[in-house]
Write a structure and sequence with these properties.
Low-confidence stretches: 100-105
Structural class: mainly alpha
Number of domains: 1
Number of strands: 2
Shape: globular
Strand order of the largest sheet: 1-2
Mean pLDDT: 84
Length: 105
Amino acid sequence: MNRFEGHLISKAERDKIKKARTQEMQKKLSEGQKQYLLKIPKCYQYLFMRAFTTEESKALAIKAFCIYCNGFDLNLTKTCNCSTCPLNTVNPWKTENQEETELSE
């Protein structure tokens, strides 16, 4: 059993829900967005699709942009400390240790 949105469900049920959501989101994508999704690594396609089609969270858009900006390298994204980036202060992976280092520079 897996926890999904606060409920315990089977992996098969979770996959079924995710597949249905993916189909709904694909209907909302523009042709340009669909083409872009084909060019990015498969492991990030669902995140980008959610960022393109939902207004639930600005954090999704920030997360997607940070991954894009760092060449789809999650390790670089997690350690990014680009002080000239306007999103630097809201980087979802930024740690307190990174913030202290920047303040001392």
